[in-house]
Amino acid sequence: MKVSLLLTGNELMTGDTVDSNSAYIAQSLKDINLVPFIKTVVGDDLTLLVKSIQELSAVTDVLIVNGGLGPTVDDLTAQALSMAVGSPLARNAQAFEKLDEWAQRRGFVITESNLKQAELPAVCDIIDNPKGSAVGFRCEYNGCLIMCTPGVPSELKPMVENHLLPLIRAHGAITTVSDITRIRVFGITESGLQDTVNEVFPDWPPEVDLGFRVQMPVIEVKLATLSEDARVLNETWTKKFIDHFSDYVIGYDDVRLSQALNAALMEKRLVLSTAESCTGGLIAAGITSEAGASSVFQAGYVTYSNAAKHRDLGVSLEALDEFGAVSEQVVTEMVAGALSRSGADIALAISGIAGPDGGSPDKPVGTVWMAWGEVGQIQARKFYFPTQRLAFQRTASAIAMDLVRRHVLGLPTDVDYFSELKKKR
Amino acid sequence: MKVSLLLTGNELMTGDTVDSNSAYIAQSLKDINLVPFIKTVVGDDLTLLVKSIQELSAVTDVLIVNGGLGPTVDDLTAQALSMAVGSPLARNAQAFEKLDEWAQRRGFVITESNLKQAELPAVCDIIDNPKGSAVGFRCEYNGCLIMCTPGVPSELKPMVENHLLPLIRAHGAITTVSDITRIRVFGITESGLQDTVNEVFPDWPPEVDLGFRVQMPVIEVKLATLSEDARVLNETWTKKFIDHFSDYVIGYDDVRLSQALNAALMEKRLVLSTAESCTGGLIAAGITSEAGASSVFQAGYVTYSNAAKHRDLGVSLEALDEFGAVSEQVVTEMVAGALSRSGADIALAISGIAGPDGGSPDKPVGTVWMAWGEVGQIQARKFYFPTQRLAFQRTASAIAMDLVRRHVLGLPTDVDYFSELKKKR
């Protein structure tokens, strides 16, 4: 069975946007053992879109069209499909209903531009899009299943798993037995994982396809097993994998680091408080991005200046003066302050130099101190992430959350994050 | 003049590699006012490669082939080009010389596999590759300039500037003038912009191509003008656009909302403090994600529980009790508390129901109160964003930042965010 992709959007042609959707679709197609045959990318050009739909549908069994479903004049997919398959545009009742629902939930009134999103080729059925105003749609043309999907990645992703793959399976009568497990790990790189697997599991069976995909800051590990006894084989090797990488594993499927941290806190019935300098609230925002955060988090302090560290957390002027804001002494006092001010069971503090300015020979940009613990039991560690400001903040936040997760669960906190890279150098 | 791209490599089809080369090429083509017309990506499939070269060269003036120049059996570009243009493979003397040089410099012996890299279609001239063993090569076929380039990004990049662009210029005798302006707006949707432009500027000239791109939470507006007097025309319509959308415009090019806010604070020499409940630190994290934030931000408070609002910000128990945490009274007291605790010039507070739980008939999930201002001059507004938790937090944070930006710059803060849809009723 052959699958082709057609991506549309001027921003893809100008290079203003790097296309990551097609890689996402391709990775997902692996689950049903398919690799795209041909991919075409065109701008918002009606003639070219029509021609591409016709040519690709003629040589493949499935055509996934991505992009061009928006409300503006440069969104041409429905019109192009209509012309390509010779089915006039008409108001699709289901699409209109979804659009109406979407607008009502937001208190919007549907405009002329929006209405365009409900005008679909008459032969089309809709593909539900729970995240946006534009429904997807599909039809069969000359035996080819054509599916049109939104270009916004967060809207596309749930549609791929929930609708596209099942539709392709049904269209191609794919019956292979397969079993897939997705595990998420944090603190080790893709190549570190691969090298370790090669070393520790020389007998890894070829039937269990092992794939890694970076989903910053975690890595998704996928075990895809295609064989008669897929389930048993998959379970066996999933267990071996998890046993070996144990404390790096934060969970299954789409689990986020913040979810894993909150779950650990919830399990132990602990309330955490945060005291952030260089991450400026990013850790607190991560924790509270999860539903139910109020049972594990009540108060956080963003103490960006030294004055704030002293005033809001009671960090001593002596420590700030003698050791500087980025020091073991100061982060330890920040934890103590957060504990006593908030009354939380456990606190986390972070202070570092995010750059681009503020470094010194002693403490270059990328230096960061973290501390965590309970009253009277505070630990601290120093890290060095000489990277760009945003990457520094994200990496430091992720490691800080993982340290607390490990601490709460009684796992080692002296783990050498991402150090398999250093060992190689 | 039309340019097409043909990328080859199984790793591009499986999604294991996200293609960044074509974005790089496209961005470089902008320098000579070109946007690729069509892009095709195929695996290491000889038949498909030959067909794609023939089809693309028939409809475009320049075809850039990327990838498939390596020494292994799955590198098929030279062979495919040979078949497509009907010119047999032969040892190219220049290519062999380069290869020999490359090997000698590294103390390598040229292998059979390497030799393959000097076997090129007889009609081809080489394109120098200073960084790798594979030279590029080019020929003309039916008036189309075909150029084959290596897939390794570090080898491709210097070739684009030094060889590809000059060859394309020479081939197309390029002289067109063009001008591009990028503006970023916040607080109005894509379709709202489109509808307003249609209404207010019925005489918008076709030479000034107007494009919108959602870059959450802002929208990028691009005016691309191709004509004899592109610059003047672009300036005129950019000015008209900015005059009309005035306070929605946060800046040019890649400016972020947090940058615009910090710039406004910096311009007025004001320090801001934040008091966040439902956004849990997201606003503080946004502000401090920008370099130089320390001159406009020193302390923020994440008061997620009522106890924290009372203890850390001095919100009265009476207000919490009588009006609830999500109320005008409480956010106003949060601002007052943040001002007095931090000593900042201006403060911002936010309290809402992010969901999925915690709503009531009176205050459903999505309800949010924001307050901002200086000592004795605090304003508040209520919003309703009935969407998913993360989208709620991001939207609320963005609007809160924009309200402070507007307040600081003396722009209206009673703007009806994203309501152009509602107004059309």
From TrEMBL, chains A, B:
It holds the Pfam family MoCF_biosynth. Gene3D superfamilies: CinA-like, MoaB/Mog-like domain. SUPFAM superfamilies: CinA-like (SSF142433), Molybdenum cofactor biosynthesis proteins (SSF53218). Residues 4-170 form the MoaB/Mog domain. SMART domains: MoCF_biosynth. NCBIfam families: cinA_nterm, molyb_syn, PncC_domain. Belongs to the CinA family. This is CinA-like protein. It comes from Arenicella xantha.
